[in-house]
Amino acid sequence: TLGGYADFMAKEIAEQPEAIERLLAGRLDERGIKLDELSMSEEDLAAIDRVYLIACGTSYHVSLIARTLVQTWAKVPVICEYASEFNYEQDVLVTPHTLCVIITQSGETADTLTAARRMRGMGCKVFAITNVLGSSAARESDGVLYVQAGPEVCVASTKAYTAQMVAGALFALRLAQAQGQMEPDEVERHYRDLCSLPDLIREVIARSWQDKRAAAVFRRAHSALFLGRGVNSTTAYEGALKLKEISYLHAEAYPAGEMKHGPIALLEPGFPVVAIVPADAVHDKTVSNIQEVIARGAVCVAVATDGDEDVASLVEHVLWIPPVADELLVPIVAVVHLQVLARYVARMRGCDVDKPRNLAKSVTVE
Ligand code: M6R
After folding, report:
1. Which pLDDT belongs to residue 268?
2. Judging by DSSP bridges, how do beta strands 50-55 and 98-104 pair with one another?
3. Boundaries of each SIS domain copy (predicted)?
4. How far is Cα 107 from Cα 132, in angstroms, rounded to an integer?
5. 212 is a catalytic site residue
6. What is the distance between the alpha carbons of residues 135 and 18, in angstroms, rounded to a whole number?
7. What is the distance between the terminal CA atoms of the chain, rounded to a whole angstrom?
8. Beta-strand relationship, 78-82 and 143-146
């Protein structure tokens, strides 16, 4: 039931902090990160030399974040694939020690299941990250991690997205540990950083009025451009996907540095641009992109870190996030503003946020 919320999307956005707390509870002991769900021996984990991350839609965006975490923390090369593309690729680069991880909220996405079967057919171990108990993905995999986000009713994924990213982070830490790439105190520090996320998300939700105010920018828009760099290019992809799914506004996302290679031609006075520009190593580069956008009369809404006066003085609206200890985890906090923003834009445009046209909660045809 809605329990006082206007729609399931609002309820599920609000449930994110608790979902992540549930997933993280009891995951650290004296031996490090506990992820018995992997059902793999320490030797097998240590031997993994390649990881395939396969998913669709929002879950594919999770794979992009997980790739960065696995490569940075565990130093294992990762290949991300859209399941629907992977299934028709001729050459699959599996080694005897490749692990395949499928990410699927529903556990019933046909393309993702086909990809998992293909990988298993090639002798690859398959690990599933899913939200649905006893789903096909869970039943057909060698190991399964339930993200425990609770039922997600709204077609647009919110709490499963953030919980799946945290699951990806746990997997990356577990692998880093088994591969001898991380000292115990480092593992513990990363785990603590993950544990700080629920409160940061609560803080962003408490700032929803900022998204409500910024939604006005999209009132007469026909299209919008989302920009971000590094891990937050993924935040841009996810923000654009949320907006188009529920508000039917065309939205396109680009890594900020790619804008000048084409999309900049779209810009004209009044064109809405959403820039994700947290305090991180690539901040100043993204600020220059914002300057280019503004010089062409576009209206910019920025997701920025508290206290960033440089960004505040440039843009029309700022969606503020509190400081996040590890910049690789910013996507898990920043995206919450984009979920809330998409919801306000959709409501303003009279759309049914929970049941957008043409979409189903799980896509069971290939
Ligand atoms: O259940 P899955 O995670 O496998 O679903 C994959 C996509 O269909 C899904 O994420 C879709 O993109 C969402 N509606 C996005 O909000």
Report:
1. 94
2. parallel
3. 41-181, 214-356
4. 6
5. no
6. 22
7. 31
8. unpaired
Question: Angle CA(130)–CA(230)–CA(9) in degrees, nearest 5?
Answer: 40
> Measuring CA to CA, which residue among 155, 62, 165, 67 is closest to residue 106?
155
At residue 361, the pLDDT reads: 83
Helix %, strand %, coil % of the chain (to 5): 50, 15, 35
| pLDDT at 366 exceeding the cut of 90 | no
141 conformational bin, left if phi > 0, alpha if psi -120 to 50, beta if neither: beta
Is 364's pLDDT higher than 90? no
Q: Global pTM?
A: 0.97
Cα 49 to averaged position of ligand 1 atoms, centre (Å): 28
| 116 pocket-lining for ligand 1 (C-beta < 6 Å) | no
Residue type, 322: P
pLDDT-derived band at 363, boundaries 50, 70, 90: confident
With residue 304 as reference, give the H or E element that holds it.
strand 299-305
Q: Which atom of ligand 1 is nearest to the CA of 112?
A: 4
Taking the CA atoms of residue 5, residue 62, residue 97 and residue 91 in that order, the dihedral angle to the nearest 10 degrees is: 120
Residue 93: Cβ-neighbour burial (10 angstroms; 0-12, 13-18, 19+)? exposed
* Pairing verdict, β 125-130 and 50-55: unpaired
ipTM value? 0.98
Q: Are 273 and 293 in contact (CB under 8 A)?
A: yes
- Residue the block writes with tokens 């591969």: 179
Identify the residue whose C-alpha is closest to ligand 1 atom 12.
57
CA distances (Å), 94 to each of 52, 53, 79, 83, in order?
A: 8, 12, 10, 15
Of 8, 54, 58, 362, which is best to mutate to test ligand 1, by the most ligand atoms within 8 angstroms of its C-beta?
58
